[in-house]
Design brief:
The complex is a heterodimer of chains A (162) and B (263).
Chain A (H helix, E strand, L loop, with lengths): L2 E6 L2 E6 L6 H8 L18 E4 L2 E4 L12 E3 L12 H8 L9 H14 L5 H7 L11 H22 L1
Helix pairs in contact in A: 2-5
Chain B lengths: L4 E3 L4 H10 L3 E4 L5 H6 L7 E4 L9 E3 L3 E5 L4 H6 L5 H7 L5 H6 L2 H7 L6 H8 L2 E4 L3 E3 H4 E3 L2 E2 L7 E7 L3 E8 L6 E10 L2 E7 L7 E2 L1 H9 L24 H20 L1
Parallel strand pairs in B: 1-3, 2-3
Antiparallel strand pairs in B: 4-5, 5-10, 6-7, 6-10, 8-9, 11-12, 12-13, 13-14
Classes of the chains: A alpha+beta (162), B alpha+beta (263).
The structure holds flavin-adenine dinucleotide and FE2/S2 (inorganic) cluster (FES) (2 copies).
The site of flavin-adenine dinucleotide (FAD) has 31 residues of chain B, from β2 and α6.
Amino acid sequence: MPNVSMTVNGKQVSQEVEGRTLLSAFLREKLDLTGTHIGCDTSQCGACVVHVDGKSVKSCTLLAVQADGASVTTIEGLAQGDDLHPMQAAFRDCHGLQCGFCTPGMVMSAVDLLQHNPDPSDREIREWLEGNICRCTGYHNIVKAVKQAAQSMKGQQAAAAE
Amino acid sequence: MHNFDYHRPSSLDDAVAALGKGEDASLVAGGMTLIPTMKQRLAAPSDLVDLGGIADLVGIKDDGDSVTIGAMTTHAAVAASSAVPPSLAALAGNIGDAQVRNRGTIGGSVANNDPTACYPSACLALGATIVTNAREIPADDFFTGMFETALEESEIIKAVRFPKPEAGNYQKFENPASRYALVGVFVAKTKDGVRVAVTGAGNDGVFRAGDIEQALSANFSPDAVDSSSIPVDSLNGDIHASAEYRQHLIGVMARRAVAAING
Ligand SMILES: Cc1cc2nc3c(=O)[nH]c(=O)nc-3n(C[C@H](O)[C@H](O)[C@H](O)COP(=O)(O)OP(=O)(O)OC[C@H]3O[C@@H](n4cnc5c(N)ncnc54)[C@H](O)[C@@H]3O)c2cc1C
Ligand code: FES
Ligand code: FES
């Protein structure tokens, strides 16, 4: 069996896996990182979104061996101790979730959006989140949360620069 | 998904060798089509040869009159590039969703020739050349039918070269569930005249709409477009849209593309 090594949420991991092991299964079953959800398992819903080398991808449509050597961030890797990431905090403040099933993928996808578009419009947020399906919220509060996170992250950057 | 032996060569030569060795080996690029297909067991290769380790296959090169896009360049990278014609960047930026664009590649899309995929229409309309490890194939000869191409077994796409058009525009009527093209039309003004390619609609996959090209060559205006001469029985009808509706949409999308070019 091939051996894969990668950095997951800052920690080095190395394990033997079958070639067909999906990254989503590797994270959940081998590393017990069950925050990454599996909704459709057919590349449609975005519940499984994680970052691989800084880019958001659907972990159900990537083999673990394809992420060999990569740096992976999951929803568990966003908070700093007890301090939620601004995106997580904004989802909580804005009631951007109900059942929470889609939320890890939504948050990871939205964090990627702000990396290259720190001040997105409503439309840009909705377009970016096309691959993330939520069956509960109707999306309005999700868009609101992403906007609030963008504002608070800008504020943090300004404070850091002072 | 059935198991397979996984290979990650770092050169094209090694990839060709690995492809030849496996009993039923398959290339994998972004995996956005192949992995779902394998999950459904519609494909069960004995060996997967991952092109992701070959650095030469990634990148966009501006050659002056044309631009060459490496096979492993993602849709996101094409969308963000200022070197590629704006019509092509816009097409790439509207494929699937952000996460599909972060993994999916131009080589995988072109090799797969899904009848509802976007890139094949750009290749035909812009008169692209598909560059493989063995030869160069003009787009007009490359797309041979639904999911069929001129690629030989063990032939690997290295890059796609697009001549820069005077102007171009792609209009897609999206299937709202899959975001693939229900009908997509790419209209280009090239040095060889007006070229119009249609995806999502043809029974044999992507095709050029000769009558619309002729009409637009005489009069490049939305009013000149008439899709009614495209035979309905050459078009696809399914639960998403009838062949008649697709015939109608070809005209609508072509008119929108011409209007966008005329500004
Ligand atoms: C939710 C979703 C929505 C999508 N929406 C769209 C859309 O709107 N428009 C659109 O056009 N596409 C869409 N796609 C498809 C997407 O663009 C894929 O990325 C693309 O079709 C395949 O590219 P890939 O790199 O993922 O290839 P893979 O899945 O890795 O490979 C596809 C096939 O091509 C072969 N192959 C790959 N690279 C090469 C090469 N260099 N040489 C020879 N053969 C090769 C493989 O062996 C395989 O048979 C969508 C996909 C998903 C999952
Ligand atoms: S579980 Fe991966 S996209 Fe739905
Ligand atoms: S909160 Fe339930 S699916 Fe989004």
